[in-house]
Design goal:
Keywords: Ribonucleoprotein, Ribosomal protein
Organism: Thanatephorus cucumeris (strain AG1-IA)
CATH class of one domain: Mainly Beta
Protein name: Ribosomal s12 domain-containing protein
Strand content: 15-25%
CATH architecture of one domain: Beta Barrel
Helix content: 10-25%
Family: Belongs to the universal ribosomal protein uS12 family.
GO molecular function: structural constituent of ribosome
Shape: elongated
Distance between the termini: 125 Å
């Protein structure tokens, strides 16, 4: 009996549209529908989630600026739309990366010129940073360090570059003359000289950097 009554009420709700009193709220208890009818409607028409507005904007609303496009969030908000920012190191330390990585990542807490304080990652092997060091900050997150969204530029201001770096030198502030001078010393042709009964001879030759290069070679008679 109860099941047939619920089915009839459900079919009635399907065929009839909700009245004005149901849409606008019920002013008196006499105008309220049966609770069983409300329960059947909630079962038949569950609430749906919509990402867009259920009603479209009118022309006047659009002209007043009702449609506002969503702007992408910046990945480096502390820079204030600048490519780099200068700052002062407040503290320098070591932190652990998230799983499954295991290491000791070097970081620095930097106070920027705009007054904001943030964490920055120190790249490369070894560094000379300490408290009150002036550094240059750029954007770029570190994948295994949550919350670290900036990196310190090597070879700028008080932060030195990585010595003896051969590849990706521009990212680590390594200069070419150090590596080039070392290669010049290794592969420079030795000057020819006459033999002096098998004794060693000292030869001083000028190099491209302006300093003299000393070469010891053994003369075989």
């Amino acid at each position: 009996m109860a099941a047939s009554l619920v089915a009839r009420l459900g079919s009635l709700s399907l065929r009839s549209t909700p009245s004005l009193a149901i849409r606008n709220g019920y002013q008196s208890l006499a105008m309220r529908p049966c609770p069983l009818l409300i329960a059947s409607r909630e079962l038949l028409y569950p609430r749906q989630f919509h990402t867009t507005s259920p009603t479209l904007a009118t022309l006047n609303q659009v002209m007043r600026g009702a449609r506002k496009s969503t702007k992408p969030r910046t990945k480096s908000p502390a820079l204030n739309n600048c490519p780099q920012r200068k700052g002062v190191c407040v503290a320098v330390g070591v932190m652990k990366p998230k799983k499954p990585n295991s290491a000791k990542r070097k970081f620095a807490r930097v106070k920027l010129t705009n007054g904001k304080t943030t964490l920055a990652y120190i790249q490369g092997e070894g560094h000379n940073l300490q408290e009150h060091s002036v550094v240059l900050l750029r954007g770029g997150r570190t994948q295994d360090l949550p919350g670290v969204r900036y990196k310190i530029v090597r070879g700028a201001l008080d932060f030195g570059g990585v010595p003896n770096r051969r590849v990706s030198r521009s990212k680590y502030g390594s200069k070419w003359f150090a590596f080039g001078f070392m290669m010049h010393l290794m592969f420079a042709p030795q000057p020819k000289s006459q033999s002096h009964n098998g004794h060693s001879e000292l030869c001083v030759t000028p190099s491209r950097s302006g300093s003299n290069k000393i070469i010891f070679f053994h003369l075989v008679g």
